[in-house]
Amino acid sequence: GEAHVSLVEATAVAPGDIVVIRIAYHNASDAPVGDIVISNPVPQHLRFMSVRDGAAMVSVDGGKTYGALVDLKVKDGAELRPAVAADVTHVRWTFREPLPAGAQGSVAFAARLD
């Protein structure tokens, strides 16, 4: 069969539930706006899973540096190991094109409640 996922506003969540964090944006000005960056921390008690838009970069060091998850490393004792989704602390989207006047939209990422 085919899996179907519906997004609904959460009234209650339990450990193990998947939560989608959606960040809405809107250019309320009358001119295009460039150089837009949206950075969002992964809330406490949530474990990052994935982004809806593959263009997002992630941080595993509290938002100091960003990159593709496959390129990031974390310190594990005296060693460095490849970062995994559970290491992600922040998610960042960088818009390549100016956002037209009046434009709006959203970006999102999924996380699992500890």
- The secondary structure category is mainly beta
Which percent band covers the strand fraction?
A: 35-45%
Distance between the termini: 29 Å
Number of distinct beta strands: 8
State the strand order across the main sheet. 1-8-3
How are helices and strands ordered from N to C? EEEEEEEE
Question: What characteristic shape results from the CA principal axes?
Answer: globular
* Mean of all residue-level pLDDT scores: 93
Protein model, in words:
With 114 residues, this protein is an all-beta fold. The chain has a domain at 35-113. The chain is 0% helix and 40% strand. The chain has no helices and 8 strands. It has strands at residues 18-26, 37-41, 46-51, 57-59, 73-76, 79-82, 90-94, 104-113. 15% of the residues are buried. The model has no long low-confidence stretch (mean pLDDT 93).
What distinguishing features does this structure have?
3-stranded antiparallel sheet; mainly beta; 40% strand; 114 residues
Write the layout of secondary structure elements.
Elements: E1 18-26, E2 37-41, E3 46-51, E4 57-59, E5 73-76, E6 79-82, E7 90-94, E8 104-113
Antiparallel strand pairs: 1-8, 2-7, 3-8, 4-7, 5-6
Summarize the structure.
This protein has a domain at 35-113. The protein is 0% helix and 40% strand.
